[in-house]
Amino acid sequence: MIENLADRPAVKSPKLLLIGGASACSQKASVISMTDTISVSERSRVMALIKSKNTGPEMLIRRLVHGAGYRYRLHGAKLPGKPDLVFSGRRKVIFVHGCFWHWHAHCVLSRMPKSNEDFWAAKLEGNRARDSANCRRLHEMGWDTMVIWECELRDLNAVLQRITRFLDPPAQSPLIPQ
């Protein structure tokens, strides 16, 4: 269904506009209103549609790992953070993180939204802190963790090599009798 933008109620959020080259510290700033293109209820509906399981990047990694011959369990509910892929026999887990939602440092996909910046800063920093705590708890329980970022999926060969190095045990040197 195509909707006419003019029929939607406008949602206004204040923004700071600097006038005539004024610095952020000067008093010559005035507030203008920027309008969101969709209503609050529509924004809520769109945000509710964002999935936390079976996302596109996760499905891509699952196909890649399965095609390489590895078998795994999904979304380990008994483990901290419910890892996306769980390799129980190896005591290893893989998280597939979206760059925006998990605030990937120095990534163009993790830009801060322009509206409601205080909310988003707290939300995304909380996500990052929770991820770190979950990895720490998994390490304390004897699990190895790997995080694959959405932006890394541009080079699937490199991702598969990382996964293989992570999952395969290191080659052991033969014992030389003395």
What's this entry about, in short?
By secondary structure, this protein is of the alpha+beta class. It is 32% helix and 19% strand.
Fold and architecture overview:
It is a single chain. The protein has 178 residues and is α+β, with helices and mostly antiparallel strands. The chain contains 4 helices and 6 strands; from the N terminus they run E-E-H-H-E-E-E-H-E-H. The protein has helices spanning 40-48, 56-67, 117-140, 156-167; strands at residues 11-18, 29-36, 73-74, 85-87, 92-97, 144-149. The protein has a 4-stranded mixed beta sheet with strand order 3-4-5-6, sandwiched between helices. A two-stranded antiparallel ribbon has the order 1-2. A hairpin with a 4-residue loop joins strand 4 and strand 5 (92-97). The N and C termini lie far apart (78 Å).
Calculate Rg over CA atoms: 23 Å
Helix and strand content put the structural class at alpha+beta
**Going across the major beta sheet, what is the strand order?**
3-4-5-6
- The overall average pLDDT, rounded, is 75
Q: What order do the helices and strands follow?
A: EEHHEEEHEH
Tags for this model:
178 residues; alpha+beta; four-stranded mixed β-sheet; two-stranded antiparallel ribbon; disordered N terminus
